[in-house]
Design a protein that fits this description.
Layout: E1 4-5, H1 21-34, H2 36-40, H3 63-66, H4 77-80, E2 83-85, E3 90-92, H5 94-103, H6 116-128, E4 138-139, H7 155-165, H8 167-170, E5 177-178, E6 188-190, H9 208-218, H10 232-244, H11 278-283, H12 287-313, H13 315-320
Parallel strand pairs: 1-4
Antiparallel strand pairs: 2-3, 5-6
Length: 322
C-alpha cells in the first residue's frame, strides 16, 4: 500500500456535501474545533456544557481546521484508530483520544461517549480522513521528526527569542490576546502559552521535543515545514522558556506510560527509568536518553524472545508457570 502524503493533498470541503444530517454534523464538528471555547468552554452557558477547562480552541494546535500537514493534523486519524497508545498501554479509540485532549490540552473533563459533541468531533475527523485507507502510512501526520540540538535547552536564551518573535502575538506575559472580555466565552485571537488558561502539564505540548518541532515548523503564525522562521536553536530554547513557565497541574501523572520502557524521554514527570535527572528529562540533552531507551527496549525484546524460546522448548513447564 503506497503512503498517503498530506502535503499538497486536497482537503475535503464541507461545501461539497449535500444538505442533510451528515453535513450538519460535520459542520458542528468543525465549529467545535475552531470555537471550542464558545461551545464547551469554561465560560459557556449553560454550565452543564463546560467540558473544557480553558478557553483555547482545538485549532490552537491542530491548525487550519485540523488539516495542516505537520501541525498535528486530523486527516487520516480515522484510518489509524483504534491504535496502541503507550500512555495508557492499551488499545485506544478515537473517542478516548479526544478525551485525552479534553483532560490535558483543554485542562477539562471527558465528554460522555454518547454526547452530541463527541459524535460531531468524530464525524468531522472522519470527514477529513476521507480517502485515507486503513493501515496506510501517512506522511505529514503529527509533527516532522526533525533533529534537535544535543545540549541542555536554555530557557534564558529562549526568553530573548520569545520577546523578539512571539510576544507580539501571545503577549509579553504569555497570557495571549482575548477577543473580548473575561467571562464572555469568546476565546482568544492568540492563545495563552502558560498560566491558568493554558494546557496543563499532562498535555503532549508540555513535552519539549514535541513542542520544539511544532514551533519550528509552525510558528510564528504563517510558518510551515517548508518555510520556517526560527532556526533549530531558537525553537529549542524558546520552547524551554515557554515550558518553564507555570501552568495547570494534572493529577496522577505517575500512572501515565505504565509499561515504563516506552515512556518518552521528554515526559518530564516521575517515575524516571533511565537513571537521569528530572532536569535532563525536562530540558535535555535528549540523545543520550534516547540511546538508553533504545537499550532498554532491546533488552526487553531479547527477554521476550528468550521467554518464547523457553516456552517452545518446554511447553509443559510454561503451562505450569515455570
Amino acid at each position: 500500500m503506497p503512503p498517503v502524503n498530506l502535503v499538497g493533498r486536497p482537503v475535503p470541503q464541507i461545501d461539497s456535501l449535500p444538505e442533510g444530517p451528515y453535513r450538519a454534523l460535520v459542520l458542528q464538528g468543525h465549529e467545535l474545533s475552531t470555537r471550542t471555547f464558545a461551545l464547551i468552554g469554561p465560560e459557556v452557558k449553560p454550565a452543564r456544557k463546560r467540558y473544557a477547562g480553558n478557553n483555547l480552541a482545538c485549532t490552537s494546535c491542530h491548525q487550519e481546521g485540523g488539516a495542516k500537514p505537520f501541525a498535528i493534523p486530523w486527516v487520516g486519524v480515522t484510518a489509524t484508530f483504534p491504535q496502541y497508545r503507550g500512555r495508557e498501554d492499551q488499545i485506544s479509540t478515537v473517542e478516548e483520544r479526544i478525551n485525552g485532549c479534553m483532560e490535558r490540552s483543554m485542562n477539562g473533563k471527558p465528554l460522555p461517549l454518547g454526547a452530541p459533541e463527541m459524535k460531531a468531533f468524530t464525524t468531522y475527523i472522519a470527514f477529513l480522513s476521507r480517502g485515507v485507507p486503513v493501515g496506510a502510512q501517512i506522511e505529514g501526520a503529527a509533527v516532522l521528526q526533525s533533529g534537535v540540538p544535543n545540549r541542555r535547552a536554555d530557557p534564558d536564551a529562549g526568553s530573548v527569542v520569545y520577546v523578539a518573535k512571539c510576544a507580539v502575538c501571545h503577549g509579553a506575559d504569555g497570557m495571549g490576546k482575548r477577543v473580548g472580555q473575561r467571562g464572555d466565552a469568546q476565546g482568544y485571537a492568540f492563545p495563552p502559552l502558560w498560566g491558568p488558561d493554558s494546557f496543563n502539564n499532562g498535555a503532549g505540548m508540555n513535552r519539549l521535543l514535541t513542542t520544539t518541532r511544532f514551533i519550528r515548523q509552525n510558528m510564528p503564525l504563517g510558518a510551515s515545514h517548508t518555510a520556517t522562521v526560527l532556526n533549530d536553536d531558537e525553537a529549542y530554547d524558546v520552547t524551554a522558556f515557554v515550558l518553564s513557565r507555570p501552568r495547570p497541574l494534572k493529577a496522577h501523572l505517575e500512572a501515565d506510560f505504565p509499561a515504563r520502557w516506552n515512556k518518552p524521554v521528554d515526559a518530564a514527570f516521575p517515575p524516571y527509568m533511565l537513571g537521569a535527572s528530572a532536569d535532563q528529562h525536562r530540558y535535555g540533552p535528549f540523545p543520550p536518553l534516547a540511546e538508553k531507551q533504545r537499550e532498554m527496549a532491546d533488552r526487553r525484546k531479547a527477554d521476550l524472545a528468550a521467554g518464547k524460546a523457553r516456552s517452545a522448548a518446554d511447553p509443559a513447564g510454561a503451562a505450569r508457570g515455570k
